[in-house]
């Protein structure tokens, strides 16, 4: 190799060493800054985890309280429904008794209608039987009365 090549290689080597020396300090600062940022990020993440856990714990407590309140309301509604169901059964029994009474009244009404129809027939028959007597001339009645006496 020629001297020019060696000189060029030496220049390149010096430039690389100078570049390394110039960049090593900022690299060390960057590594230190990155390490500091890592610590800050870890601390922030830890803080956020704590906040999230606290929020989740609070939400769980609220949810448990809400569930307990809703469970109590469901129990009250269930009791009311049972009471309403019992009332419905009692009302059904009363309606059944009233239905029986209505059937009895209906049958009595039918019998009364039959009796009234029978009475109407009798009244009609009596009216038809009396009608000839009501329409007779006055003299014919008196003749019948004197004829039977004589």
UniProtKB/TrEMBL annotation:
Report keywords, A-Z.
Membrane, Transmembrane, Transmembrane helix
Can you tell me where the transmembrane regions are? 6-23
The name this protein goes by in its record: Apolipoprotein A1/A4/E family protein
Q: Which organism is it from?
A: Candidatus Ruania gallistercoris
**In the record, what lineage is assigned to the organism producing the protein?**
Bacteria, Bacillati, Actinomycetota, Actinomycetes, Micrococcales
């Amino acid at each position: 190799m020629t001297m020019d090549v060696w000189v060029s290689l030496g220049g390149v080597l010096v430039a690389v060493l100078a570049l390394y020396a110039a960049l090593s300090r900022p690299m060390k600062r960057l590594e230190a800054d990155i390490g500091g940022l890592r610590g800050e990020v870890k601390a922030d993440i830890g803080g956020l985890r704590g906040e999230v856990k606290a929020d989740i714990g609070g939400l769980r407590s609220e949810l448990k309280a809400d569930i307990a309140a809703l469970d109590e309301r469901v129990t009250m509604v269930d009791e009311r429904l049972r009471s309403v169901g019992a009332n419905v059964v009692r009302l059904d029994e009363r309606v059944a008794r009233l239905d029986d009474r209505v059937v009895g009244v209906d049958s009595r009404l039918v019998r009364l209608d039959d009796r009234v129809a029978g009475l109407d027939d009798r009244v009609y028959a009596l009216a038809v039987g009396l009608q000839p007597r009501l329409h007779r001339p006055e003299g014919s009645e008196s003749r019948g009365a004197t004829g039977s006496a004589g």
